Amino acid sequence: MSYLLERSLFIPRHREQVFAFFADAHNLEQITPASLRFRILTPGPVAMKAGTLIDYQLNLHGLPVKWCTRIEEFTPPSSFVDVQLSGPYRRWHHRHEFEAVPGGTEVRDRVEYELPFGPLGALVRQLFVRRSLNQIFDHRNATITQLFGK
Question: What is the pLDDT of residue 94?
Answer without folding.
Answer: 98
